[in-house]
Amino acid sequence: MITTNDFKTGVTIEYEGDIYQVIEFQHVKPGKGAAFVRTKLRNLRTNSVIDKTFNSGIKIETAMIEKNPMQYLYQNGETHVFMNNDTFEQLELHESQLEGKIEFITEGMDIKIISYGKEILGIELPDKVVLEIVETPGGAKGNTASNATKEATTNTGLRLSVPLFINEGDKIVVSTETGKYDTRYKE
């Protein structure tokens, strides 16, 4: 149990039968009346975000979330197979549990499986991943405008804007948070 005064970004709590992660919080002490805590919470089961205000000092149950390191092996239809590198135990997750993250996963990648008890909530990706460009038009000669970009498709199916100097076969670093090009990958 923690109190609302102990809220920090990233803390997970059980509230009204669901599991939430604190995204933002603000302690407010008005001139008159009791202090309160204004929060923005992400539901870890549905990924929806809600705004909730708590009275200051209220006790809330913490949720014990586990993050187990695993390696992505392969896709089998609509399921994706992961393996624990210590026990070699394999785990299958449906595409719906990986929504918005499939385009960043490549075979052999190390990720973290987020679970609450026996319930799998999803995965945690590294901040940045290396992907290969499989399709992009050639850059126009003489186009030296700064920040000029073109569309490209990666080996995972992710479509994004890249600088004109990126060609098919190049490896790039992509932010998993924004889904945008970061830099060219240098081996």
From TrEMBL:
One of its GO terms (cellular component) is cytosol. The keyword Cytoplasm applies. Pathway: Protein biosynthesis; polypeptide chain elongation. Residues 67-121 form the Translation elongation factor P/YeiP central domain. InterPro entries: Elong-fact-P_C, NA-bd_OB-fold, Rib_uL2_dom2, Transl_elong_fac_P/YeiP, Transl_elong_KOW-like, Transl_elong_P/YeiP_cen, Transl_elong_P/YeiP_CS, Transl_elongation_fac_P. GO terms for biological process: peptide biosynthetic process. It comes from the Bacteria. Its main location: cytoplasm. The keyword Protein biosynthesis applies. CDD domains: S1_EF-P_repeat_1 (cd04470), S1_EF-P_repeat_2 (cd05794). Keywords: Cytoplasm, Elongation factor, Protein biosynthesis. It is found in: Cytoplasm. GO terms for molecular function: translation elongation factor activity. Residues 129-184 form the Elongation factor P C-terminal domain. Involved in peptide bond synthesis. Stimulates efficient translation and peptide-bond synthesis on native or reconstituted 70S ribosomes in vitro. Probably functions indirectly by altering the affinity of the ribosome for aminoacyl-tRNA, thus increasing their reactivity as acceptors for peptidyl transferase. Belongs to the elongation factor P family. This is Elongation factor P. The gene is efp.
